[in-house]
Amino acid sequence: MADMPDVDLTPLSAAITKVAEDALRTIARDAVPALVKQQVEEALKKMVPGLVEAAVSQETVLIKETVQEVTRKALPDLLKSMAEPLAKEIIEKLAREMVADIAEAAVKKEIARLTAEV
User: Fold this and answer.
1) What is the C-alpha to C-alpha distance for residues 94 and 102, in angstroms, rounded to an integer?
2) What is the mean pLDDT of residues 18-36?
3) Distances (CA, A) of 83 to 19, 41, 46, 66, 88
4) Where are the chain's structural domains?
5) How many angstroms separate the CA atoms of 69 and 13, rounded?
6) Nearest-CA neighbor of 88 among 76, 96, 100?
């Protein structure tokens, strides 16, 4: 080979290194946050259902007690609205039957008394 000229490549190497570093910084600034965001979103998608399940399971007793308390408070009004018409119907039916039976018995007694006098 022919004699190679003695050239100092240090400035060229330094310039290429600087360009490469600048390019990597730009890529890191622009691309890495998106990659991190995607990884965070994926991690959250995996974690959130478990966290919600854990939170709900810890609150199961409170939820159960709340439902029972609401039921205890609402049930009397609900039953009252259903029971009053039913009770009225039953009482009226019993009264009609009892009055009819009592009236029939009273009429028979009066007939017996009147026929006994004759």
Assistant:
1) 12
2) 77
3) 87, 55, 51, 25, 8
4) 12-58
5) 78
6) 96
Which of 3-17, 36-50, 69-83, 96-110 has the weakest average pLDDT? 3-17
- Enumerate long-range contacts of 5-9, CB under 8 Å, 24 or more apart: none
pLDDT tens readout for residues 40-80: 778 777 887 787 777 767 777 777 888 888 888 887 877 77
Q: Give the three-state DSSP class for 108.
A: helix
Helix axes 10-58, 60-117, angle to 10 degrees: 20
Q: Count CA atoms within 13 Å of residue 78 on its CB side.
A: 6
Integer CA distances (angstroms), 52 to 12, 39, 45, 61, 89, in order? 57, 20, 11, 15, 50
**Cα 111 to the center of its chain, rounded Å:** 72
